[in-house]
Amino acid sequence: MKKIKLTIDNTPVTVPEQTTIMEAAQTIGIHIPRLCYHPDLSLEGACRICIVEVDGARTFQTSCSTEVREGMTIQTNSPEIRQARRDLVELILDNHPQDCQTCERDGQCELQNLAYTLGVRERLYEGERKTFPLETSSLSVIRDSEKCILCYRCVRMCSEVQGVHNLTQMHRGVKTVVTPAFEAPLADSVCINCGQCINVCPTAAFQEKRFTDEVWAALADPAKHVVAQIAPSIRAAIGEDFGLPAGTPATFQTVTALRRLGFDAVFDTNFGADLTVVEEAHELVLRIKKNENLPLLTSCSPGWISYMEHFYPELIPHASSCRSPMTMLSVLLKTYYAELKSLDPKNIYVVGIMPCTAKKFEIFRPEHYTATGQPFTDAVLTTREFAWMVKAYGIDFTKLPDNDFDNPLGFSSGAADLFGTTGGVMEATLRTAAEKITGEPLRDLNFTQVRQVEGLKEASIKVGSQTLNVAVANGLTNAQTILEKVKAGKKQYHLIELMACPGGCVGGGGQPYPSEGRYVLDRDLIRLRAQALYMIDEKKKVRKSHENPFILELYENFLGRPGSEKAHHLLHTHYTPREPRGIK
Question: Which end of the chain is more exposed for a tag (fewer CB within 10 A), N or C?
Fold first, then answer.
């Protein structure tokens, strides 16, 4: 590729052609401030914060969208540039709520950090401010348009990465707003509740609907038996909120923190994942034998389920009927566990600690309620909400001793830990399905063909005398690519794993906000979190779901066998085509 020579801040630079000024500056250690820019999204050039001076140009140029040219001379920090950037930020701030101390993103707000960096110390401008009502119709996501700075990251994320196209810009001037079509409430739109808009928003225009008050109240109620369950990806990311390096496993400190908060018992969603694998492997083998409803579409992502119901309802018969691991475990907590402990299910309060805002929507689906009209899962806390509760309680997470889960619903195989990363559900299912198909133990448990998935990956895996065609997709534009192949009959697949969030659950919409300088789609960050789960799997003695002794005991004493009538009633569900309310 052709090399371009230029000068930035009196320093000679040589970079490949088609490099932007912003990228070129970074090669010599110059960070140009930005707000609307995101490395994994298209260029918007909306905020103008990243402007620079280019010799010969009549106006300042946006460094994020201007490519270098031979012989360019650029100034990134002249007095005029610094003043212009400060003016732009001051104008944004003076049309922004003055509630930093009570804001969800206080201390982790890109606008706040930028104002400090640029030396903005007072509000200078007065005039009409935008006013919008708080939009709280969604079960997962709150939209606060008064905090929106019109960077359009959320619009680009929803369209380019998630393929949902739910958000757009409406009106002009001070009335400009980012909203679903026709300014519909989120609950009436095609929003899939994935929460990726929250992750990319530099302020707090999008935030999760919080359950912390309800959980505090339950913990303070002596009549309630309050139990928690922890999703696999929590243990790979929670430490980041307490200053631990990304990718630090923190399983047992998390258990200890929950006990300190006052939970009566702490269980592992991984037990539900092991159970899901056993039921799903049975389902897959049965479908292969009958050659019907293939490929089997597998996922533990409620965001993907919503996406399928909205955009691919014709593929619902292909979806696994298994409940998610969280919901399977919640069902057992209010049936099996309630019997073992002689507890009234109505007094058991189940809290899921999840990486995912869509889980908040999932628990209110009518098919996830008991026969007496109560939810199997009473509340879902995201990783961020849980971390805040730990801090609010004065717990020093980094100094906590290890503590183990409660049994019988706290023991899990290494396969279950893999559910937290893309390709993990596939790999865990294959470990069990392969042994069911061949009748022989696997020599190599690691299906590396479905690991390190950056978007989309296909593989053909030899299982005995049979070849299984499989695919893994994360981020729903990638899911769309593979699903269109299925619809067109271009390739015959046996098993497809689909995850709504980039990187799978480790990149979920409720995971910790990245530290300064990182972005939520940072592949290195996602890889580190995934590596933590692979490390946990490797260290476990039991690494196949169907060899979990407590799963075997559960079937023997309660469920009967995989796929039994009782197992199907308790552990399986159904899905329904959806359309936005009011749109026919």
Answer: C
